[in-house]
């Protein structure tokens, strides 16, 4: 197949790689900071069957710095060159969201499998377009809805399958993050632009309701309230104050698979105090999922209790990875196994499209539509 990205014509075919080691090309990683450095790099380097084969950033200098930092042979200041690299079997897209569409579609047309960070696109229409384009290829595309692959969540799902607390009668969730508060780093200013597709609703709320649906079923009968508690956030190191137009606090009620659900999502918590709590109340007991991370619960570890007593969690092959990499490693491992076996166990574009439509419904509910 042929596609064009940045003036480079690519001709490759999916299916040439047998089960074994897959070379991963990571686009959007910084040598000294950022989510890709904290999660993607240790996940790739810590899992069997994967190898960090190449990195790409927006400049050759920063790509070279990342390659040196992570011991990678190939570095590109142009994402098209990484996608064309014959040693790359999987393209990992960890850039800002507006760049996702072109990178994902170029990668699959070039014969590569893809792991893309969430959000997949800037809105539901763009996600639907990406899904349509990729459906005409044989590529596996995994989506970074990593909370559902946390070991504690996996254990919780098994307990629910065995009706460990009987029928679930209600669920309450509190989900917080340090982002979207009264102060911003200069790198966070771009998140205040609604067109960027990266905000409390599309990130923190999305990961939260995705987990609710994974555990309980599809959300419906939604009522929602959006609030902006910090309307004039201050940009650190400057005299600049922004006018925030996006919510930094969300209240949501609904029914998931018939179960009443109450969700609160909060931005602007202190970085060392960003709790996550999910409580499932059943006829025969209670299951409590706990966690918390400055980036949001989806970026950290979680623990599980049944009726107040801790439940043992098996980490599997992610046991020795850093906390920030465990959940992302779950997505990589699922994608690796899907490529090997032809299965579809990793979070998919179908699920991403459904989730973006759900967020549209939540916005409509908050706006009184």
Structure report:
The chain is an alpha/beta fold and 369 residues long. It has two domains: 2-144, Rossmann fold (3-Layer(aba) Sandwich), CATH 3.40.50; 147-314, 2-Layer Sandwich (Dihydrodipicolinate Reductase, domain 2), CATH 3.30.360. The chain has helices at 35-46, 60-70, 79-84, 100-109, 124-135, 151-161, 201-216, 323-341, 349-366, and strands at residues 2-5, 8-11, 22-27, 50-56, 74-76, 90-93, 113-116, 141-143, 168-176, 183-184, 219-227, 234-235, 249-256, 259-266, 275-282, 285-292, 302-306, 309-310. It has an eight-stranded mixed beta sheet. A six-stranded parallel beta sheet has the order 5-4-3-6-7-8, with helices on both faces. The N and C termini lie far apart (44 Å). The model is unreliable at 1-18 (pLDDT under 50).
């Amino acid at each position: 197949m042929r596609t064009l990205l940045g003036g480079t014509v690519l001709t490759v075919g999916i299916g040439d790689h047998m089960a074994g080691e897959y070379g991963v090309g990571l686009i959007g990683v910084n040598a000294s900071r950022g989510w890709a450095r904290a999660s993607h790099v240790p996940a790739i380097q810590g899992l069997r069957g994967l190898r960090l084969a190449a990195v790409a950033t927006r400049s050759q200098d920063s790509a070279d710095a990342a390659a040196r930092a992570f011991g990678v042979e190939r570095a590109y200041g142009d994402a098209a060159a990484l996608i064309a690299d014959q040693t790359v079997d999987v393209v990992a897209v960890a850039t800002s969201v507006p760049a996702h569409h072109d990178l994902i579609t170029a990668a699959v047309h070039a014969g590569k499998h893809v792991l893309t960070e969430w959000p997949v696109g800037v809105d539901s229409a763009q996600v639907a377009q990406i899904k349509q384009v990729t459906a005409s290829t044989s590529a596996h595309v995994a989506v970074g809805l990593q909370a559902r692959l946390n070991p504690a969540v996996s254990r919780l799902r098994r307990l629910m399958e065995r009706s460990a607390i009987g029928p679930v009668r209600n669920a309450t969730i509190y989900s917080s993050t340090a982002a979207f508060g009264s102060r911003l780093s200069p790198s966070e200013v771009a998140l205040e632009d609604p067109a960027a597709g990266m905000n409390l609703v599309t990130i923190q709320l999305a990961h939260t309701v995705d987990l609710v649906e994974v555990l309980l079923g599809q959300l419906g009968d939604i009522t929602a309230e959006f609030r902006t508690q910090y309307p004039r956030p201050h940009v650190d190191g400057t005299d600049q104050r922004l006018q925030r137009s996006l919510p930094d606090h969300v209240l949501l009620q609904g029914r998931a698979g018939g179960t009443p659900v109450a969700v609160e999502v909060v931005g602007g918590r202190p970085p060392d105090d960003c709790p996550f709590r999910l409580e499932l109340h059943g006829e025969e007991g209670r299951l409590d999922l706990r966690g918390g991370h400055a980036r949001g619960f989806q970026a950290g570890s979680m623990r599980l209790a049944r009726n107040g007593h801790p439940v043992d969690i098996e980490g599997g092959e992610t046991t020795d990875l850093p906390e920030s990499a465990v959940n992302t490693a779950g997505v990589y491992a699922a994608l690796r196994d899907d490529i090997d076996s032809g299965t579809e166990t990793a979070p998919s574009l179908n699920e991403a499209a459904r989730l973006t439509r759900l967020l549209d419904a939540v916005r409509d509910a908050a706006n009184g539509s």
